[in-house]
Amino acid sequence: MNNEYDLIALDMDDTLLRSDKTISEKTLASFKKVREAGKYVVICTGRPVSEIGPYDKQFTDLQYYICESGALVYDHFAKKVTARHTIDASATEDIIDVIKDRDVMVQVMVNGASIVEGAKVPNMTHYCMGVYVPLYTAVATHVDDIIPVIRENSGQIEKINIYHTSREESIRTSEALAARNLPIERIYAETASLELSPKGIHKGVGISDLARFLNIPIEKTIAVGDADNDIPMLKAAGLALAVGNANDHAKAAADLIIPSANDDGCLYAINKYILGE
Fold first, then answer.
1. Whole domain around residue 217: which residue ranges?
2. Are residues 50 and 14 part of one domain?
3. Are 58 and 96 contained in the same domain?
4. 136 domain-assigned
5. 126 and 64 in one domain?
6. Stated pTM of the model
7. Strand 105-110 and strand 113-117: pairing?
8. How far is CA 260 from CA 14, 19, 106, 228, 246, in A?
């Protein structure tokens, strides 16, 4: 039986969540089985804590969230942050200079909260993020101008997401930031997003830190993902699984390809490799 693994880390969007942002009842039921077996299902997402909030009642058997692509680890049961990394203040003005005149929507994450320009939320389809309008309407902090927020929180920001009108535009922004040699990580996500994290921090760090905290050998962990920002955790985990709808980069980094998000790929992984069913 394939149940030698003790922890499985699941990306949320397009991995655990189906295309309509829901989770099947069978998958939710499997979380309880894992907890009763003394093992862990962990969320490992680019989202801040506030954006996982709408799922909290479904995640009653999940103790830990790895958020913001590894920059923040949150104990859902204790309602507290257990680890946090922030973008160096030296990068602040360069980031502002690169994005200030571009047609982008910027999301800033501070202490697990999501901050965006409220006027752009209804128009998120323009930035290839239309499916998230209800979420950002409900849980994000809305401001008039994101630039002062970045300045006021310099040195305290865990992550910045920059949403673009196309992948080509996100590449241009990434290249402009790369030319400045800033202490940040730049990762492509979603359809046209660019994610900025503290230097050296990514989902691989998050899963490694939590495994060490729980005294679980990294070889006994599983990572499941679909996109470029999942690749570091796929490389770090003992077993790397990509859902069938994953992009080519994630599939290349995986040991195995499992069913798609819409076909309950995470349930398949949990049953086969954690529960041994």
1. 7-84+201-274
2. yes
3. no
4. yes
5. no
6. 0.88
7. antiparallel
8. 8, 10, 29, 16, 8
| Measured distance CA(237)–CA(242) in Å, rounded | 12
DSSP state of 59: -
Q: Which residues, in sequence order, are bridge partners of residue 194?
A: 162, 188
Q: Out of 198, 213, 236, pick the residue that ends a domain.
A: 198
Report the alpha-carbon distance of residue 149 to residue 172 in Å, rounded: 23
**What are the tokens at 277?**
């069913």
Contact present, 81 and 67 (Cβ < 8 Å): no
Q: What are phi and psi of 174, to 5 degrees?
A: -60, -45
In the chain, how many domains are there?
2
Domain shared by 71 and 98, yes or no = no
Query: How far is the C-alpha of 27 from the C-alpha of 266, rounded, in Å?
Result: 7
- Over residues 230-269, the pLDDT tens digits come to 999 999 999 999 999 999 999 999 999 999 999 999 999 9
Residue 142 CA, chain-centre distance (Å), reads: 21
Which residue from 174, 191, 202, 216 is spatially nearest to 125, judged by alpha carbons?
Answer: 191
For the chain, helix, strand, coil in percent to 5 are 40, 25, 35
- Domain shared by 63 and 74, yes or no: yes
Domain at 194, CATH number:
3.30.1240.10
pLDDT tens digits for 126-180?
999 999 999 999 999 999 999 999 999 999 999 999 999 999 999 999 999 999 9
